Amino acid sequence: MDKFIVEGGVKLKGAVELSGSKNAALPILAATLLTDGRSVIKNVPPLRDVYTMLRIMRMLGIKVDMEDGVVVVNPHGYKNSVAPYKLVSTMRASICVLGPLLAKLKHAEVSMPGGCVIGPRPIDLHIKGLRSIGADIKIEHGYIVAEAEQLKGSRVYLGGNFGSSVLATANLMMAATLAKGKTVIESAACEPEVHDLANFLIKMGAKIKGHGTHMIEIEGVKSLKGAEYSIINDRIEAGTFMIAAAVTGGDIMIKHARIEHVGAVVDKLQSAGVKVTSAKDGIRVRKTRSLRPVDVTTLPYPGFPTDMQAQMMALMSITKGISIITEKVYPERFMHVSELARMGAAIALEGPSAIVKGVARLSGAPVMASDLRASAALVLAALVSRGKTEISRIYHLDRGYHNLEEKLEKLGAKIKREKEE
């Protein structure tokens, strides 16, 4: 396994190029299972989760090639409908093959998903959505077994205890494209990644309206065709670099970032005293004055993203005053708190909230990554810490950030990757 060695104290300056969105790429790759036609997907980030999805697709009998961010998919004639535990258990997003397999092959067996340890993430909304359009679903031997000779459009409310579900919305939307009649998804997720998936499905010949809102309408068609498509850039990577500029007192131009995709992050950073401006081809972020504490509550889009909670906590840990960060999407997503405390952060947990008392400075320490976004938070904290920080288990980070250390180095950071002993 690899680790990062980071020496803090450098103000990051310069421009950085964003990678394609992992959270958009995974369901879009799954959507290619809906057709026998060849698809070409561009701007795909070369990440561990993407490679896992490609391995799943190959095990299903699909020909897939990836080179320089371009994935060519030829699913013609594939018949295997089983996504095995060995792969699905490593990545929760694998479950998004369930809807396409069911719609195309009339049968699907998908292992119960795994992924980062950030608290319970039930699949009840996936099952509810697919059952609403006629699927017979059972849980057997750790697998979701779904069958449907003919899916039929229906109206379904997809809201859950903690809001709408991106992957459940994606699964139902993909399956509904080949259902008979109209499907209406109420309380649908409206994240940019869902919007991107809908745009790809439309290029394939699907009839979809309302994507980007909480009510999506899908009129089923008999078949879809392959398509060529370029996915959006990663808004969570953009937010991470925005906080990198703020936490180090730097000045970063984030190329290809779309300010409308990170509105809640921009709002909180501006409230904290960070200067954020929209440029011709991206976003410029500068720290021009002392930081102020802000309270943050994570919510489904367009609220503050749960995937930015840990990074924001790293920033607030060095901001004078007290801030309260409340997690309403995954209330147990605080594995990074104990590691930030090892670096000198003063954070107390009260149920789904973290009370952060800003300290004058953090100090380098050996820390361990527990999940993808916690890893990013530890890197951000290390960038502003006194001395060296050793971050182990960064394979978590590699699931969602491509060449993060190289991008940070170009901005002036002192960071290097080494093998763990």
Major sheet description: 4 strands, mixed
Examine the secondary-structure arrangement and name the CATH architecture of the largest domain.
Answer: Alpha-beta prism
Give the terminus-to-terminus CA distance. Answer: 8 Å
CATH homologous superfamily classification of the largest domain:
Enolpyruvate transferase domain
- CATH domain class name of the largest domain: Alpha Beta
> What is the name of the CATH topology of the largest domain?
UDP-n-acetylglucosamine1-carboxyvinyl-transferase, Chain
Percent helix range: 25-40%
Beta-strand content bin: 25-35%
Molecular structure report:
With about 425 residues, the protein is an alpha/beta fold. It contains 14 helices and 24 strands. It folds into 2 domains: about 1-20 and about 235-420, UDP-n-acetylglucosamine1-carboxyvinyl-transferase, Chain, CATH 3.65.10.10; about 20-230, Enolpyruvate transferase domain (UDP-n-acetylglucosamine1-carboxyvinyl-transferase, Chain, Alpha-beta prism). It is about 30% helix and about 25% strand. α1 (about 20-30) runs parallel beside α7 (about 190-205), α4 (about 100-105) packs parallel to α6 (about 165-175) and α5 packs parallel to α6. The radius of gyration is 21 Å and the shape is globular. About 55% of the residues are buried.
